[in-house]
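A reminder from the course coordinator: this example appears on the midterm review sheet, so study it carefully.

Given structure:
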């Protein structure tokens, strides 16, 4: 459990650092270097013979590379899309669901035929494809280094306040979101890590446990496409209610896993869990754009993912410890359903807080310089409207 939890946690723990590098050097360079580091980590994992080195090669090196490749793929979408950002995020993140469906069967065949070490080397091909894909990123919004350096060739770093943009935490609605989601994630990933072991304990080897991953992957992809499109029709910060619903249903489904004494019932639970997992993932970036704006979204996502790393790393090992002490996963799954319910309740306050913030900002007095600019704009508008009929009259003669 520690190898997979460490890997999953490191992907998100590195995110604040990744956001800083993304602002400094752009999405393309960060994504390419991240894929290269991940390739090295995965390839080196194929040459170890004990589990201890895997903590570094797979749990840290490979995961850090994936983190540097993952976050720019979310940020770059905001450079190209605004009105349909939710749908675009759904389409892009649905790619992981596609491989969640296909990889378990492929890995079973590869491990049975060429063993684990050669399987890891085959997977390096996918990392190399990711390395090449990073070169296609073409940022349209200038990064911090370009703004501060001016001409090319100057290596002038911006001030520390602009490198680490902690000003996003001044936004109250973002603070609630950034701490409410990690509170929900203490039990969120427990089913994903321990579900297969629970099936073996409950049903033995008589059922195909890969079917559960298939159900999770298919419905997660459908959820990302459907809810991503739905999010485009929901105005402003009210998109957060989709995440509230997803946490509620995921917490409820986690509590229902121990109650499933028939494999078919467990399949139905996984179908619903995957659907709302897709809802939660696909609207993270659109919500961040709504709360802090396009300029600060990179570090806003980075700080959020960094805070998510702690519960994601701690939750599954605690569930494994409960299983070792009690001999069953039942209590672990019951407890795993509680944090998503609490986190969802916290997030319910965000739309109300965000609207109050907007009203306060709109009620602020306008300074003299802004007033002069507004008067200049009004005067130019009036002059344009008066000159237009004269030009039309001249052209008529």
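Designed residues:
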């Amino acid at each position: 459990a520690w190898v997979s939890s460490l890997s999953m946690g490191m992907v998100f723990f590195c995110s604040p650092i990744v956001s800083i590098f993304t602002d400094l050097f752009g999405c393309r360079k960060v994504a390419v270097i991240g894929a290269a580091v991940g390739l090295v980590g995965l390839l080196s994992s194929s040459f170890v013979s004990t589990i201890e080195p895997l903590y570094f090669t797979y749990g840290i090196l490979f995961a850090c590379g994936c983190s540097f490749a993952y976050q720019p793929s979310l940020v770059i979408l905001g450079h190209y899309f605004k009105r349909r950002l939710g749908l675009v995020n759904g389409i892009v993140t649905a790619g992981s669901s596609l491989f969640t469906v296909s990889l378990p069967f492929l890995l079973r065949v590869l491990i049975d035929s060429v063993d684990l070490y050669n399987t890891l080397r085959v997977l390096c091909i996918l990392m190399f494809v990711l390395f090449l894909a990073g070169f296609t990123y073409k940022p349209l919004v200038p990064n911090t280094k370009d703004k501060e350096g001016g001409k090319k060739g100057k290596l002038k770093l911006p001030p520390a306040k602009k490198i680490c943009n902690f000003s996003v935490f001044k936004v109250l609605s973002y603070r609630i979101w950034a701490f409410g989601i990690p509170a929900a994630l203490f039990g969120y990933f427990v089913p994903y890590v321990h579900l297969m072991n629970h099936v073996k304990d409950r049903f033995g080897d008589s059922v195909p446990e890969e079917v559960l991953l298939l159900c999770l992957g298919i419905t997660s992809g459908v959820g990302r496409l459907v809810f991503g499109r739905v999010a485009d029709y929901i105005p402003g910060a009210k998109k957060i209610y989709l995440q509230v619903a997803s946490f509620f249903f995921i917490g409820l489904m986690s509590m229902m896993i121990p109650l499933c004494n028939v494999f078919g019932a467990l399949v139905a639970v996984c179908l619903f869990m995957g659907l709302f997992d897709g809802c939660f993932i696909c609207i993270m970036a659109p919500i961040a754009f709504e709360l802090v704006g396009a300029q600060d979204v990179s570090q806003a996502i980075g700080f959020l993912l960094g805070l998510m790393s702690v519960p994601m790393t701690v939750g599954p090992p605690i569930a494994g410890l409960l299983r070792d002490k009690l001999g069953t996963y039942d209590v672990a799954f019951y407890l795993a359903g509680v944090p998503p319910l609490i986190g969802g309740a916290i997030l319910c306050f965000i739309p109300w807080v965000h609207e109050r913030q907007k009203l306060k900002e709109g009620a602020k007095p306008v300074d003299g310089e802004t007033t002069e600019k507004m008067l200049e704009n009004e005067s130019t508008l009036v002059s344009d409207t008066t000159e237009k009929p004269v030009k039309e009259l001249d052209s008529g003669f």
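The chain has one domain: 1-136+166-363. The chain has a mean pLDDT of 79.
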